[in-house]
Structure formats: C-alpha cells, structure tokens
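Protocol step 4 of 6: structure prediction from sequence.
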Amino acid sequence: MYDGASKFHQPVLVEAVSQFLLAPNVNIIVDVTLGDGGHALALLEKGGAELRVIGIDADAQALARAQARLQNYRERCRLMQGNFRSLTQLLGSLGVINVDGILADLGVSSRQIDQPERGFSYLEDGPLDMRMNPDLPHTVRTDTAAGLLVRLEREELKKIFREYGEEKLAGPIAAAIVKQRSQRPLQRTSDLRQIVEKVVKGPYRIKSLARIFQALRIAVNEELDALNEFLPAALAALRPGGRLAVISYHSLEDRIVKQFFKRQEKGCTCPPEFPVCACGKQAQVRILTSKPVTPGPEEIAVNSRARSARLRAAEKR
C-alpha cells in the first residue's frame, strides 16, 4: 500500500497519475522529478511485476531519501542525479531509447520549502540560495538567488518579477533592491522579505512575497527554459502509445504544457486556402485531459500544498 508517512513528502494526485501511466503493457516509466519517491512507490506498488522505474532528480538529498523509501523495490528501479532538461542524455547513459511513460511533478517540494537553509521560503530566515541542484557540476546555471540580486540590473530584475512572478509592483521592488544593495548586499531571505514589505502595503504583502520568491526561484533554476527543453525530449523518448503526465503548480508552467500538447495534437498547419496539405505535419499526441485534473477537497484537506496542482496528460500517437 502507498506509504503516506509524514516523514516523506506527500505526492499529489497519486491516483490520477497511476491511472494515466499504468496502461496495459507498460514496462518502463521515468519519473524525472523523483523527489522523495512517492509517485514512484505508488507506481511500483500498483504496476505489474515487470514494471521498472527510472527516477531522476537534481537534488542529491531527495535521491537519498527516495533510495531509502524504495528499498523494497531496489531491483526494479534505477535512480540517477540530473536535470530533466537533459532527459535524452540521461536515458542514453543507461542505454535506454524508448520508454512507456514519463512523469514530471514540477516546482519545489514541501520538504525543500520547509528547509530554511535552502532559501525557498519567505516564512523563515535562511540564506538566499534557491538552487535545486547546489552540488551538480557546472553544466547548468549555478547562480544563487543572492548572486542574481547582486549581479542583475534593475530592468532585468523587474523583468524577472513581472514575467515569472506576474507581480504588478515589479518595478518598485526591483528599484528598492538596487538601492538596498548599494549599501549592503542581500544575503538572507529576511533581507528580501523586508524590502518587499516596505514596498507593498496592506493585505497584498503575502501574495507579493510569494510571487517574488517564486520568480527568483524560477530564474535561479531556469525552470521554464528547462520545461521547454524537456517536453519535446520527453515526447521523443516515448514509444507510440506511451504517455506523458505533467503536474504544474502555477499558470506559467501550466500554460507551457497546455500549449505544447495542443501544438503536438494538431496535424496540418497549411493555410485553409491550400487545396492539399503541403506541410506534411501529422498529429503527434492524443490529449487525455481536456481540462487539467485537480485535487479533490479530501486531498487538499490532508495536503494543503496540493491546492494549486494541475495535471495534464497526453499519449504519443
């Protein structure tokens, strides 16, 4: 039975993920955001004896916890450290070309949020780090949040806060950061929180704090760029009939996934006045979720952080 013990991060939408990915004749599923291994455990428990799971995560601490959690299935799973944007290379290193299912559970985990030393949360004081992969080789960006706040110009910070956080006061907040760093660099989450709270008044402070921290995290980890690289690589890695399931937590991610699926579902893109197709483009997927699957009230009551989760799935033609 699925282990929901509180010592592990609680995965969201476990039943929906299982229903989409555990189709008949499934042999290999890749969880590209393994975390504590909750989804992988559920898939291994519910799947047949032939099912194998490849688990990938950028966070070495998460991999260690997942290894302990999946100990009973160690013969049926292979864990490796890496960023899902490098899916093709990671699978290639294992000699794997095609798989039957791929899961991506985007964003930051509850455990990472609850660790002040990671710097993801404005609720507790800690270093402004925010890297998902602080110990990975320099094949991906390794700037900390503090590094970005020191290095980037006001307009660049404004763009990050506006595009990645959809923050209306992006300009004033960026200006306040530049003014503050001329006197003393921002090194702690509390430093950034104080600046936001000085700029944003009234009941909107909490939402603005969440947006600014989200925007910085996305920038530090190049999350949207990574997602845009991952999606076509995932589709290429799937065998015909294989399925891709993606869980997102904010509109920026969900929009990218939705638009990618729609583009891949569409066939001919020739102008309507063309008598016959000249582009030769064929539909690559069948969308399985006309609307995103969301958690029910019971799941949200148990795990409030599941509230914003949105699951979209598609099947390769």
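Step 5 (inspection) to follow. Residues 1-6 have pLDDT under 50 and may be disordered.
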